[in-house]
C-alpha cells in the first residue's frame, strides 16, 4: 500500500524488473487487470474515470519519444490538442524552465534528433510542467543527467507548489526528492 498526499514526492526504487514502471503504468490506467485499487483524489481509477484522471497527470519516461521536429514545435504541440484547449503556451515559462534546468535558449530552434539523452529528458520534463498538471509521474526520467542537472530537476520540482511526484528510479540517489523512498522487492540485478 502507498498513499501520496497532495504535494508529496515519493521515489519507488528497486532492482530491474521489480515493477517500478508497472506501478506507474497502473496509475496511468495502462494495466487493466491487477490485484488492488488505485485512487486519485478519492476517485477510483477504472474505465469510466481514467480519461478524466489522466487530465491531472503528466508522464515522463526514461527515453522520451518526442518526435523529430524542432524543440519549440514539440513543446507547442500539446497545446493544439482538444484536451488542452483551455491551456495557453507560454514562451516566457519555457525560458524560465530552460534556465532552471540548465538548458540553453537556442535549443528551442534545434531538431530533437540532435539533442543528447539528457537534453531530451529535460525537454520532456519542461513539456510535462508546461501542462500544469498536479501529478507528475517520472519513470527513470533523470537517468541520463549528470549530478548537477539532476539536482536542478529536484530543485525545480520541489519549488512547484502543490505538485505531487511519483518517480521510479533504479537508485533513490538518482532522484533525491525530499519525500519517502519505497523499495520494491524482486527483480534482478543489472
Mean pLDDT over all positions: 90
Number of strands: 7
Output the strand order for the largest sheet: 4-5-6-1-7
Q: Indicate the low-confidence ranges by residue numbers.
A: none
Overall, the morphology is globular
Q: What is the CA-CA span between the terminal residues?
A: 26 Å
From the alpha-carbon coordinates, what is the Rg to the nearest angstrom? 16 Å
> β content, as a range?
5-15%
State the helical fraction.
Answer: 25-40%
Give the class from helix and strand content and strand pairing.
alpha/beta
The ordered string of helix (H) and strand (E) elements is EHEEHEHHHEHEE
- Give a short account of the largest sheet: 5 strands, parallel
How many helices does DSSP assign?
6
What would you say about this model in short?
By secondary structure, the chain is of the alpha/beta class.
Which short descriptors sum up this protein?
two-stranded antiparallel ribbon, alpha/beta, 190 residues, five-stranded parallel beta sheet
Textual characterization of the structure:
By secondary structure, the chain is an alpha/beta fold. Helix content is 29%, strand content 14%. It has six helices and seven strands, in the order βαββαβαααβαββ. Strands 4-5-6-1-7 form a five-stranded parallel sheet, sandwiched between helices. A two-stranded antiparallel sheet has the order 2-3. A hairpin with a 2-residue loop joins strand 2 and strand 3. It is globular and about 45 Å long. The mean pLDDT is 90.
